[in-house]
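Hi V.,

Quick status before I head out on leave. The structure for the redesign project is tokenized and pasted below; the design run finished overnight.
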């Protein structure tokens, strides 16, 4: 054996590192540990762990992000150490560096023999671990039946699990943080109150909450602003939980929770409509219908608060594709649109958009709090929903936090009004008057 071979023995980890460098055109910026315990790469940071050689086969069968996601969900890939640091390093190598050489078909083809040699002659199981968490689609996209199924896939996984992640507020959208706010519950209460003030809620008004979740907004609006509220959701588990909260607070005479598609709400008009974290489920093809419906549900002078995640516009919008991991395992059929397109569609419906507030950094902070809660209660989370789903939620929330921090996606509150014929929109002369109450 040569001196070089003794100093730098060829191990599974070193072979994998070399192969990754050939594929991506750059060294892997993380320490790598293979299934045989061998390690290669830089020290002092997080470690990418390939727990089983099946991970290579999954990548071969589904090249790109989906193959890696399937390996992660199955537990064949893992990260030891700071997950955010690991994802940042990988994003900088693969997605965020404009001069990074893409993994071409020819490069992948050249790597196949080595990948097969490393993965060995092990057939994949018929149903890989965790695949029960992958959404199976039937019927036309964004039909009412398919939307019910998609919502159930994400939300009907157990209210106890969501309590663990979200905390007592049970609000599944970004909180609003202030200079003296470091508590998740307080930040979520601040967000709910900001929405109510933007909507100008007053005693006796009617509020419709489209996609009401576990009922936090309608409860807040009824308790603190005296409104009569209707909350609609497609999730039976959310509705059951929200109704229990309403009954506990003795608000059944003022708050109604329905399992109902927003397209079937016919008992307008409402003085205000809130849509918080729901419009991402609507889909581009249905968004004009969504905007038209909300316009018709408002009385003249009524306000809409549309709180929605947005992506950056593309030079060629026809190239937009939904993130394959999110689509398969997290939010089936979810779509993001640039905020400019959303404004245009709302105004085409007849609404007048009067204010837009970006809460991008607020969502990053919120997600980091959710991830922290999940990690602190990891064993309990696994008992509640299984290891695969817990791994899905941890990865998607951590990756989403980084996406918000880097400005790749944002979240905006759009305040719109159904302006009456006389032009009196019933808004304050200074549209941001509500901000003074939170500064």
């Amino acid at each position: 054996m040569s001196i070089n071979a003794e100093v730098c023995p060829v191990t599974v980890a070193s072979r994998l590192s070399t192969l990754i460098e050939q594929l991506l055109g750059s060294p892997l910026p993380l320490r790598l540990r293979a299934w045989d315990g061998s390690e290669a790469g830089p020290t002092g940071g997080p470690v990418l762990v390939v727990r089983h050689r099946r991970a290579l086969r999954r990548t071969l069968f589904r090249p790109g992000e989906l193959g890696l996601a399937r390996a992660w969900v199955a537990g064949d890939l893992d990260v030891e150490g700071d997950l955010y640091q690991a994802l940042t390093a990988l994003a900088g190598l693969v997605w965020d560096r404009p001069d990074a050489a893409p993994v071409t078909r020819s490069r992948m083809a050249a790597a196949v023999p080595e990948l097969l040699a490393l993965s060995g002659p092990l057939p994949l199981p018929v149903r890989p671990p965790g695949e029960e968490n992958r959404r199976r689609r039937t019927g036309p996209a964004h039909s009412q039946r398919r939307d019910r199924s998609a919502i159930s896939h994400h939300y009907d996984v157990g209210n106890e699990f969501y309590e663990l992640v979200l905390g007592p507020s049970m609000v599944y959208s970004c909180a609003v943080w202030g200079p003296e706010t470091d508590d998740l519950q307080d930040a979520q209460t601040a967000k709910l109150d900001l929405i109510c003030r933007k909507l100008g809620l007053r005693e006796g008004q009617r509020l419709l909450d489209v996609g009401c979740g576990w009922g936090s907004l309608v409860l807040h609006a009824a308790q603190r602003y005296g409104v009569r509220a209707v909350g609609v959701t497609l999730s039976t588990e959310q509705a059951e939980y929200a109704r229990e909260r309403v009954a506990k607070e003795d608000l059944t005479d003022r708050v109604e929770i329905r399992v109902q598609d927003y397209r079937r709400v016919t008992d307008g008009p409402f003085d205000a409509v809130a849509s918080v974290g729901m419009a991402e489920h609507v889909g581009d093809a249905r968004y004009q219908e969504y905007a038209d419906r909300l316009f018709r549900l408002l009385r003249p002078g009524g306000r809409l608060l549309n709180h929605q995640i947005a992506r950056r516009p593309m030079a060629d919008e026809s190239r937009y594709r939904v993130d394959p991991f999110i689509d398969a395992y997290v939010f089936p059929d979810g779509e993001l649109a640039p905020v400019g397109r959303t404004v245009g569609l709302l105004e085409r419906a007849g609404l007048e958009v009067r204010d837009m507030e970006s809460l991008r950094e607020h969502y990053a902070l919120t997600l980091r709090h959710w991830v922290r809660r999940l990690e602190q209660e990891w064993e309990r989370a696994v008992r509640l929903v299984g290891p695969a789903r817990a791994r899905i939620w941890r990865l998607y929330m951590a990756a989403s936090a980084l996406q918000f921090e880097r400005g790749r996606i944002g979240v905006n509150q759009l305040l719109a009004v159904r302006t009456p014929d006389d032009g009196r929109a019933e808004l304050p002369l200074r549209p941001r008057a509500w901000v003074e109450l939170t500064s």
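Above is the designed sequence. Residues 1-7, 97-102 have pLDDT under 50 and may be disordered.

G. will cover questions while I'm gone.

Best,
W.
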